[in-house]
Amino acid sequence: MNRKFLSLTAAAFIAGSAFVPLSKASAETAAKSIQNEESAVQESISGKQNEIAKIAENEKQLQSDMDKIS
User: Fold this and answer.
1) What's the Cα-to-Cα distance from 64 to each of 51, 53, 70, rounded to whole Å?
2) How far apart are CA 43 and CA 37, in angstroms?
């Protein structure tokens, strides 16, 4: 299942809980789904931060190379 579907499912599940009391098992399932979504987001953020660090390092190397040429 894709992350967006899981996120929407969890949101719908929680929204529905305002009208229908959740069983303990259903609440635990919703909580786990939300935790999984949070983990996926954190993993994505970490990956983006690594990409940014690589770009910054490449920029420094490029600037160094340009300074040598000048």
Assistant:
1) 20, 17, 10
2) 10
CA dihedral (16, 17, 23, 28) positive or negative: positive
Q: Does an H or E element contain 66, and which?
A: helix 24-69
Tens digits of per-residue pLDDT, 7-20?
666 666 665 555 55
- pLDDT of 35-47, one tens digit each? 999 999 999 999 9
Token pair of 64 as six digits: 């160094």
Compute the distance between CA of residue 51 and CA of residue 55 in angstroms, rounded to an integer. Answer: 6
Length of the chain: 70
